[in-house]
Amino acid sequence: METLAVTLLACCAVGWAVLAGTDIGSGMLLPWLGRDDAERRLVLASFAPFFLGNEVWLVATAGILVGCFPALEGELLSGQAPVLVALLAGWIARDAALWSRGRGPGPRWRAACDAAVTAGSWTVALSWGLLLVALLTDRPYEPAGGPVALVAAPTVAALFAAHGLGFASLRLTGAPYQRARRLVGRAGRPWHPLALTAVPLGGLTLWAGASLPLAERAAAPGTLALLVPALAVVTPLLVAVQAWVWYAFRGRVTGPSYL
What we know:
By secondary structure, the chain is an all-alpha fold. The chain has helices spanning 2-28, 30-33, 37-47, 51-68, 70-79, 81-100, 107-136, 146-171, 174-184, 192-210, 221-248. It has one domain (2-248). The protein is built from 11 helices and no strands. Helix 1 (2-28) runs antiparallel to helix 4, helix 8 crosses helix 9 and helix 8 (146-171) packs antiparallel against helix 10 (192-210).
């Protein structure tokens, strides 16, 4: 049961990094991809059908950690509290701006929401980078610091941005697409840039998770026997729904029909 719990945790964490990395990266580059209000709406519409479903993977990761590895969860939450609070703050600010952008009084409100989307996306990416650095440097119970963190966290954020560019080149049209394509370049098939950035994003997440003492901090066998079978049933359903959403919205966005 411990092995299956670890596998489910890894799948959910990698799923969030790879899938949510698309909308996080696109949000990070929102001011550059969209130069006016209409173009920014187009960029937001490119990931609007996905971002809530993508965030489910992070919620699932936290849920598995709490249920199947409660001792480790407590140690991580207390040790990485500043980083996790920053990640949650960026996440909330970003989602609130996405939901309220089209409900405000005018262009200044929309510009402020766009700025919150960008700032929130950068905050989430940098926070995830700091968390990965702490795990990879065997310091899971204190925030990462020093020169390594100053270099590695922005590098992870840049990887998110590159992932967002690959996604934007698949979904956008018009001038925003041309800007994304200019940086992505021509790399074989259209989905190749997205796949190329998905590999290091998922690989870094797996590598960081492998440094945690998951087996030693697993819950009691009785608890795992209750939780893991239920998670094993729900996870394929989550994958199926996610696959359907990505298939249903696989085309390019031609107009700002959301947000």
